[in-house]
Amino acid sequence: MSEQSSRLEMLRFLLRVQEQQLHATRRWIADEERREAERHQGEQARPPQPDWVLELGIGVGAKPAEVHAGHCYAIGDRRRPITRDQAITALTDGVEACPHCRPDTDLGLL
């Protein structure tokens, strides 16, 4: 085998490797585009944020824990969206207002 033909074989081998890498890169791009589309679809399907949230107590029949504004970062996992009137009623019935988002102030009860 001559030096010229071995150089040609090495270049063809390099070409095959680069084609495989290009194919892998295109597959990674397609996967990332699919994940991005799924994230976007998930954001579009997300229900709107409620204006007011009632954080529920632990256990059956437990008293509600707190009333929160819908944007509050301190809302626990046990929650239920409520209307403005339900939030006012809960606060006037003795349910605590969240000390972080202060829904009593937003509702004009303070």
TrEMBL record:
InterPro entries for the chain: DUF6233
Pfam families (alphabetical): DUF6233 (PF19746)
Name of the protein in question: DUF6233 domain-containing protein
